[in-house]
Amino acid sequence: MYPGAPAKRAPRGNLPAETRLLTLTGPGGCGKTRLALRAAREAAGEFGNGVWWVDLASLSDPDLVAQAVARVMGVREVPGRSLLGLLIEHLESGETLLVLDNCEHLIAACAALVDALLEGCPGLKVLTTSRESLRLHGEVSWLVPSLSVPEEGARSSEYLARNEAVRLFAERARAVSPSFALADENAPAVARV
User: Fold this and answer.
1) pLDDT tens, residue order, the chain (193 aa)
2) Architecture of domain 21-143
3) If 0-12 CB within 10 Å is exposed, 13-18 middle and 19+ buried, where does residue 154 land?
4) What residue spans define the domains of the chain?
5) Which residue from 47, 74, 100, 105 puts its CA 20 to 30 A from 5's CA?
């Protein structure tokens, strides 16, 4: 701050203290990815170096986690240099949000990478989704509540369309079959699922 500059005011409100590592936990299908995506979109303007989304669902080799992050961020490997060192160099200045989605099957590799990146990059914040926390010092783990399910015997498509689990089902069904629509004819079957 330069002399005479107005003091930066802390934001008002009662939100819990900020964290550099937040993990959204919960069972599969509870909405962790959707919540992380929404949070990342809403926070995008706060990060001068951007928000970077890395989907780890299809990755099976823990040794490739750092490569997946580097690929998304456009960091190329350099002979004789560690990829971790290159990532830290890329991220060490400026404010960045890194989102690692679907960490549960690569938990140890994700934890090691996140720990090293947070240590070397003071402007980095990390949001992860996983069925379990990374178990790192300073991590805040938030359990995403399960979606509500319809009452047994519900048959009205109008009623079911207001239900979280049914809306998610319909969204996923339309991804597979764009012509899918929730209607009174299929509502009982959707409710049972």
Assistant:
1) 334 444 444 444 444 457 999 999 999 888 899 999 999 999 999 999 999 999 999 999 999 999 999 999 999 999 999 999 999 999 998 899 999 999 999 999 999 999 999 999 999 999 999 999 999 999 999 999 887 778 887 778 888 888 888 888 888 889 899 999 988 888 888 888 7
2) 3-Layer(aba) Sandwich (3.40)
3) middle
4) 21-143, 157-192
5) 47
